Hints:
disordered C terminus, binds 1,3-dihydroxyacetonephosphate, 46% helix, globular, eight-stranded parallel barrel, 10 strands, TIM Barrel, two-stranded antiparallel sheet, 13 helices
Amino acid sequence: MSLYDIAKQLVAPGKGIMAADRPSPAFRELLAAEGIPDDEHSYRNWSEMLFTTPNLNECVSGIIMTDEQVRMADSRGEGLLPQVIERGMIPGISPFKGMVVLAGSDGETVGSGLDGLRERLAEYAALGVGFSKWRAAFQVGPGTPSYYAIEANAYVMAQVAALSQEAGIVPIVEPEVMLWGDHTIERCFDITEWVLSRTFEALYVHRVDLEGTLVKASMVLSGNGCPQQADVDTVAEQTVKVFRRQIPAAIPGIVFLSGGQSDYHATAHLNAMNANYEMPWRLSFSYARALQREPMAIWRNRAENAPAAQAALYHRAKMNGLASMGLWAEELEAEAVFSSA
Ligand code: 13P
């Protein structure tokens, strides 16, 4: 399959991506609160529960996994990755090995894991991985992000994108402007515009094929500590505006991260964009927290809770699938008409 075909499948109407690539701090807190050991076994149970949710492929096109998950055996001793494929979803990989502080910076970071990446990507491709994701995280502060951090991250994201395409893997380039801080939506807009413009320049320099690339973007939002919180329509308007300025129409799709937004806002914002604007790209989701918050609260590493946790995951994925077509409505949440049964 061509890179373009994989990218198109990932953003097919009504579908988005589930990011399962990090045992988030919330996951670790849940385990600690329940007295569950934070070990390989819990991570396997959690991953298997998520990936085997009945009918998930109706609204989830692909799952972003870690290196550990890609190699993981399920409770029957069979591979988890082949199960994802059998269930009609595309496995993806987050090949990065953690954030490191940029030397000489004021605590700004860049992803690590470029060493041996060419070989690892070839191995992932042989296992059936169809796409990769690489994140850059920009904290908005008085002097950040700096020109230095934006350039360094743009070049690393572009290198990973080029190496992914060489291996036949669709890169998802993720420059995240983080929600944390008291900055206004206007400042978020300006930073997002700057970051996107430098990211695309780096993709051009690295000869990345845009038709075979997806962007994982943050929405243009007020900082979580800003007294003036922009409403849903303003977020939709500003986000679409910055994308129109900086994301070429050749990109098949933009998938959002949820970034700490509530489940409701992650869905409502996506829906408002798709319901109200004509755009050259498909706009969908690649959420971790906004899909897994509720399943995590229900699950608690108990097998008897798995069906209810899976129903909660299916419901959120379905709501976001509808939002990716501008067809979501708040009443659907209250009715909880969808279940995975
Ligand atoms: P959130 O949706 O929780 O922001 O995570 C998305 C992700 O994969 C960030 O790398």
